[in-house]
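Lay summary. Proteins are chains of building blocks that fold into shapes, and those shapes determine what they do. In this project we predict the shape from the chain. Here is one chain we studied, written as its sequence of building blocks.
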Amino acid sequence: MPIIEPENHLVRELRGVHLFHSPFSNCSQRTRLILAEKNIPWESHVIDLMKFEHLTPDYQGIHPKGVVPALVHDGTVVIESHDIIQYLDDHFPGPKLMPTTHHEKSLVFPWMELGDDLQISIKTLTYEKLFRDKFRPRKRNFPIMPPTNEIQIWSTFIAAI
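And here is the predicted shape, written in a compact code that computers can read:
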């Protein structure tokens, strides 16, 4: 379980549960789902990926890979969503959400792995839906050649070989 020693020493002083996350990150979403299911009070620290806050020295001092989420519980830093989920299930009361027997794990873990495998597709669809209008196509800074000129250039090139 990736419990790490943070380079950002300020997080060691945090008490309670603090989640550093992004609203649109599916790894953050699954972590927030577990917090809600177990009814764990927590403090939100939104990391704005569009402003590259995940690449700041302050955040990378919490999560060295610069990805979300990261959980701080009474100064202990846990990274990676699967490990955060397991940590929350192990350390807090409420319904057990993670499997304990080998048979249960064989049923649940393939679904968790599928979520990881689909992460790029989920992210692509999410960002396409949310941010498509914010990014307009760039204006071309070069002339577009009429098709007849292009055919003539290719014909000349092929004849030269």
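What the prediction tells us: The first strand starts at residue 3 and ends at 4.
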